[in-house]
Amino acid sequence: MASLFKDLAKISAYRDRRFSGTQEEFEDALLKSTTVYAGNMSFYTTEEQVYELFSRAGEIKKIVMGLDKNSKTPCGFCFVMFYSRDDTEDSVKYISGTILDDRPIRVDFDWGFQEGRQWGRGRSGGQVRDEYRTDYDPDILLLGGYGKLVQKE
Ligand code: GTA
User: Fold this and answer.
1) Ligand 1-lining residues (CB < 6 angstroms)
2) Among residues 13, 52, 69, 111, which one has the fewest Cβ atoms lying within 10 Å of its Cβ?
3) What's the pLDDT tens digit per position in 45-102?
C-alpha cells in the first residue's frame, strides 16, 4: 500500500529539540518510524487501555507510558511501537481523536523511542505543555499542575 503520509508538512508539526541529527534526518525518521506518540491522555489511563485501543490498528511491539519525572506516575502521554509501518499510519489516521477516558487523544508520528524520552520535560516534572495551560482540566487541576507557570510568571 502506498504511504498516505508523503507530504511531510502533514505528518507532524512537532519537532523534538533533543533529536541530535539534522532536520533531514529527523524528517526521514518520521517517514520510516513505526513509533507513535499519543498525547492529551488522562493521567488515569493505563497501559492495558492503551494496548486495547491501539491493537485496533495492528500488532503492538511495545508500549512505554510517559511519566512525571518526579512522581514517576503517568502524566498524559505514551509511545506505542508497532511492527509495521502501515499499522503505524493507521493508528495516526484512525485512532487520533478517539475518546479515551473522556479525552480526545492526539496520535502523532514519532522519530523513535529512546531511553529517557518517557520522562516529562516540564520544570514541575510533567509535560511541558501542561505547565502553560490556562483552560480547565480536571486531571491537571487535581494533580496540582494547572497553570502553574502561568500563575507564577
Ligand atoms: N512525536 O507532539 C509530540 C510530542 N510532544 C508534545 C511531546 N513529545 C512528543 N513526541 C511527538 N509529538 O520524549 C515527546 C517528547 C518527550 C516526551 C515528553 O514526549 O519528545 P514534553 O512534552 O514534556 O516536552 O516531552 P517537549 O516535547 O520537549 O515540549 P514542547 O511542548 O515541545 O515545548 C518545547 C518548548 O516550547 C519549551 O521550551 C516550552 O517552554 C515552550 N512551550 C511549550 N508550550 C508552550 C506554550 N503553550 N506557550 C509558550 N511556550 C511553550
Assistant:
1) 14, 16, 37, 39, 66, 77, 108, 110, 117, 120-122, 127-129, 132
2) 13
3) 999 999 999 999 999 999 999 999 999 999 999 999 999 999 999 999 999 999 999 9
Secondary structure of the chain in HEC code, one letter for each residue: CCCCCCCHHHHCCCCCCCCCCCHHHHHHHHHHCCEEEEECCCCCCCHHHHHHHHCCCCCEEEEEEEECCCCCCEEEEEEEEECCHHHHHHHHHHHCCCEECCEECEEEEECCCCCCCCECCCCCCCCHHHHHCCCCCHHHHHCCCCCHHHHHC
The strand order across the sheet containing 35-39 reads 60-67, 74-82, 35-39, 106-110
pTM of the entire predicted model: 0.89
Q: CA–CA separation, 30 vs 50, rounded Å? A: 21
